[in-house]
Amino acid sequence: MRTYLVTGGAGFIGSNYIHYMFKKYDNEIRIINVDALTYAGNLENLKEVENRDNYTFVKADIRDKEAIGKIFAENNIDRVVHFAAESHVDRSIRNPEVFVETNVLGTLVMLNEAKKAWELEDGSFKADKKFLHVSTDEVYGSLEEEGTYFYETTPIDPHSPYSASKASSDMLVKAYIDTYKFPANITNCSNNYGPYQFPEKLIPLIINNALQGKKLPVYGDGKNVRDWLYVDDHAKAIDMVTEKGRLGERYNVGGHNEKQNIEIINIIIETLQEMLPENDPRRAHVTTDLITYVEDRKGHDRRYAIAPDKIKEEIGWEPETMFKEGIRLTIKWFFENEDWMKNVTSGDYQKYYTEMYK
């Protein structure tokens, strides 16, 4: 049985990845989920799997060498899938230090402990080991012209403390690949959306605010462009790169869903109006009147667009979920899990597990 060490598995993408892996492999794999349970970590995301015999949760900070080293010492880890990161740009602008500590120093600890566990006396590495570092398209900076894209060879040009910390972690992984021939891959993905996403992010924020009749904040002129990737498609890409990716390579993972932020908001409003029952009182306030333009974010990148050509050609992955389908699936999930959203927005989600994992 292959053992996966997943960092940040209680977060949005990490928890979706764990669900995806158990659906695909069931009892053929074992997953150890390491998460510090900061505000973005929510073990309610994993209630469906928490009692599986082949799933283990460990509350630990990736910066803690002893805790991470102990996991490697006590388990034969075959795969590291490294999601754990501070990821919200606005928070990085207010508090850059924690982003450097977690995203850079935490990645360094993960690399060192994996290297220590997997390295043989001659400096080579045990067979069939892989470290998959999950990163973002934001490390490439901003695109101004339509028809241009981020490729794996695009120069790194981060513009926020968040993207700078992720770029630094990418470079650390690359340095270990180049220096030690460390068995790793890097993936850089576009904006994800789907179930379990923390409501400070654009799509769940707009869904939640619209249903409550609250203002829908739009930065600047609302014309900043992002490429949107449904989270299950991303989970599939990560699995495929982990198993089929050429060692040492970087792969861009994009959704072929470029849209302006204001387009996203209008699509959400239209979709909510379509999906809400005729007798639902919330229909009355789900309108474009809620849209409110606010001061633009500092250093706000204008456009991101990923070219996933390499991953398609080498591995055979391509996105399967177009945005209109994905947003309906996402809204349907939020309708069916209103208690999850209430627990997150109220902070109640932290109480039970905070007591359990003191």
TrEMBL record:
Enzyme Commission no: 4.2.1.46
Enzyme class: lyase
Cross-referenced InterPro entries: dTDP_Gluc_deHydtase, NAD(P)-bd_dom, NAD(P)-bd_dom_sf
Record's catalysed reaction(s): dTDP-alpha-D-glucose = dTDP-4-dehydro-6-deoxy-alpha-D-glucose + H2O
SUPFAM superfamilies given in the database record: NAD(P)-binding Rossmann-fold domains
Keyword annotations from UniProtKB, A to Z: Lyase, NAD
Gene3D superfamilies: NAD(P)-binding Rossmann-like Domain, UDP-galactose 4-epimerase, domain 1
UniProt record, GO biological process: nucleotide-sugar metabolic process
Cofactor(s) required, per the database record: NAD(+)
The keyword NAD appears for this protein: yes
Single Gene Ontology MF annotation: dTDP-glucose 4,6-dehydratase activity
Record has NAD as a keyword: yes
Transmembrane regions: none
Domain NAD(P)-binding: 5-329
Domain of life: Bacteria
Pfam families given in the database record: GDP_Man_Dehyd
UniProt record similarity statement: Belongs to the NAD(P)-dependent epimerase/dehydratase family. dTDP-glucose dehydratase subfamily.
Name of the protein this chain belongs to: dTDP-glucose 4,6-dehydratase
UniProt organism field: Anaerobium acetethylicum
